[in-house]
Amino acid sequence: MSLSDHNDLPGEGGSRRLSNFSAYAMSATICSPGSSSRCCSNSNANNSQDSISDCQLHRHSNDFSSSHGRNSVSGSCSNNDSIYQQLNTTVQQPQQQLQAKLPLRQTLRRQHKNNSNGNAINASSSKLRNNTNANNVRPSSSIAEGEHIEGYPPTAYDVFTSSLTPFASCGRLKQHQKLHSPLLPIKIPASVYAVTGLLLLCTMLVSPCQAFQLDGSQTSFAQFRKWYTGLNGSLELEFKTEQPNGLVLYTDDGGTYDFFELKLVEGALRLRYNLGGGAHIITVGRELHDGHWHKVQVLRNDEQTSLIVDGVSQSSTTKGKEFQFGKFATNSDVYVGGMPNWYSTKLALLALPSVIFEPRFRGAIRNLVYADQPGGATRRQEMKQPRDIKCGDGPCDNGEMPKEKVPRGVRGGNTTDACERSDPCQHGGICISTDSGPICECKNLEYDGQYCEKEKAPSEATFRGQQFLSYDLGQTSAEPIVSAQDAITLYFRTRQPNGLLFYTGHGTDYLNLALRDGGVSLTMGLANGKQEMHIKPSKVRFDDHQWHKVTVHRRIQEISSITSFCRLVTVVDDVYTDHSHIAGKFTMLSSSRVYVGGAVNPRALLGARVHNNFVGCLRKVEFSADTLLLNLIDLAKSGSKLIQVAGNVEYQCPIGDPQDPVTFTTRESHLVLPPWETGKQSSISFKFRTKEPNGLIILATGSKQPRSKNAVLFAIELLNGHIYIHLDLGSGAAKVRASRRRVDDGDWHDLILRRNGRDAKVSVDGVWNEFRTPGDGTILELDGHMYVGGTGPAYNNIAWPPAIWTATLRQGFVGCLRDLVLSGKAIDIAAFARLQDSASVKPSCHVQANVCAGNPCLNGGTCIEGWNRPICDCTATLYAGPTCGRELATLAFNGSQHMTVWLGNGQGTKTQTEELIIRFKTSRPTGLILLTSAESNSPDRLEIALVAGRVRASVRLSDREKNLLAGQSVLNDNNWHTIRFSRRASNLRLQVDGVPPVRGMLLHCSICSLRKLK
């Protein structure tokens, strides 16, 4: 059987015209029983463009002209013998008579009764042709007696059966198309109309086509004919997904005002639309991403629009006098699941430009039904074919066609999910199943590559005061971005205390984020309410040329039908937090304008507290509004039409900057710099910060050993919270305390030293001290390397000058250092840190609070707040190590034993400072605990002993001697006690357990010679 444009069908008594029947059958699908042929989607009576070319006609027996067949289509015809047995017609002989006649009512009743147990009539699975024909022929469940079926009158329900050739083809009728069959040589009475009608009707009962899948990738979308909404139009579809966010459907008037946007937001379905009187929002449902089918209807009734999801309805009323949706001739097509990428270069064609940035729908769609012609009836829609797709006002250009002509990411409903077998995506990449296998979607990740395995370079830009990024949707009369919650996240680095970071607003509502006086300032206006916050912690500034992270989050919650509540939270560096709230007559947050890094006139912006544009670097500036996420620097760099770029913006930040700081994280961490070229005149300056009282900051020597005669030396150290300068030009050493107040307070401090020959002056935080080196040397020849932050374990055996106490005690500097300048030359110490020691010397400087939280010290150790580290004091325990986790060895003496330890590899040492900690327990009141000795001709010694149950420390240097006695109770109680002894030149200190220490002083002697310890 074929479908053609013939007007006549041979019949009894001549030709009988079938124009009436073709009007009845114009929107039905024809399928054959007992065959494997494919089934087309149905076609509406008003669709004069539909063609039989979408179907291929087959024949299982006898000759059949191939000229009647065309391209095959997707879908399937069911082989349901029980219902088709009444239609089994075979051409035996031309003269054979019709054998039986059976009322259609009885056939349908019998078949419906057989299937009344709820089992659906099976239909074979089908694949979509070219992955583009995604329509579903929805089956009817039953036909009531007297009910019209696709326009059939009840008088057409009588039917007969005859022995005709098995019908093995499928096709569809165009409007006003007639039937003709060259395979029927017999005369057919008028009742053959009912036979053909039954074929069409049975197809609708047994042959539903499959839903189409959208994979959610960046090229995934489906395109359909325009929706004629009229004043009382409707649109319906069904979807299922497991993703809470995604664009379901969009259409507009071509870029003027009117639009319909349907999307999932956190599992709820939101309809946003504009019919010329302002945008409206309707939200229905929750947890709709449950993997089940949900039916959606959008109904119009003049000024009222309703959204119905699974029978639950919400409505909104449009203000104004005219409610038509654009002009049908210029309206856009209907897009499902996403937007074509070519729109990103033609945002003016969108009434809602933000739709191009919405996340794409990932799931299944079926039964998209609406009217696509003025005055036409609603019908199930078919996806547009490539030849019918245009890019805007005209056809796609050559560059767009390969990517956009055929919608990507669309598959048939019964395809296998390759991601269930294997998910190769890394770092949170989304696995998407395609016909060629799984692919990885890396959008909004810090990684890219085939499997999201490669770390991306950060999106960053440099601003120098004249550059900024912006968008203004109001300039094109486009609708603003609206949301129930939004967030701003950015990273900044600057030395300037003031500058505009980010601004967003719409009308009188605004949010203004800026740097003010080195702190983070935020002002917000919403309806008639205002909020302001300023985050500036004590002793912390954010204009320190370090990367800082700022996150601002707003969320609206409805209190009543007329009042809502907005919660505002700002977090800096994930540590410093401020929050506030405001209540008022608002329902959503709106953004039609955004400025990043500045504006033409920043002081004119609402809520402005600073009048300067930002100077510095910004990284990863993101603005999110519900499902929408905009990486604004990435968009600007890629040339997005949404973003306007003012000035010459460099999309990178300098990798190295001589002023970048470094952090020395341990006593052993240090950097080794090339020799400092000094001569007769030289200078040095830097900034530092720490909370630890002792540490060697800088040390440089000449070619001679530090303790040799005429050795040249320069050093800066921190002792007991004060800065000390050591300078020796080879003719005598000078040691000067440069600070008047303690500088171990965690703040940044400035140090500047200038010298000219023997004369020098040093400044700490602007307070100057002058001094002169002894002797007649005027040249500072530092041929050796310069050590910054300490010397490290590799130099422990070097005999440093005894006057440099932190070098003797192996106490490196723990803290931050920046802006190092040697004789006018800036030194990029951050670059040295990256090259030499990326583990313990970090090219950054941040403050960590509460480092002792959680009690990191074990076995009774005491935690002391260091610089970004806990310092565990284990002296009152039997353990040692960073966390007091290593058990110490214990020695037992019987009164006649001793142990000898040689110092300085047996050569002895000369020091100006010592620290000694000993734990003991005994039942005897008197006994020698420790004794040091020097060369045979030196009287220098240190003795620690228990005398009458108390601890005595005796120090003899040259001809001077001093005794200290500590311990308020008898210590020979067989319990553990702790002795702490320290000397700084002539200053002595002795402490037992936790009682206050005893202090003393040796006059006119500071250097002690030690060779061995007993």
Automatic annotation (TrEMBL):
Domain EGF-like: residue ranges: 415-453, 848-885
Chain ranges of the Laminin G domain: 211-396, 458-653, 660-845, 890-1014
Biased composition (Basic and acidic residues): 379-391
SMART domains listed in its UniProt record: EGF (SM00181), LamG (SM00282)
Keyword tags: Disulfide bond, EGF-like domain
Domain of life: Eukaryota
Matches recorded under SUPFAM superfamilies: Concanavalin A-like lectins/glucanases
Comp. bias intervals (Low complexity): 114-126
Location of region: Disordered: 110-148, 376-411
Parts forming coiled coils: none
InterPro entries cross-referenced by the UniProt entry: ConA-like_dom_sf (IPR013320), EGF (IPR000742), Laminin_G (IPR001791), Neurexin-related_CASP (IPR050372)
Polar residues bias (residue ranges): 127-143
Matching Gene3D superfamilies: 2.60.120.200, Laminin
GO cellular component annotations of the record: membrane
Protein name: (Mediterranean fruit fly) hypothetical protein
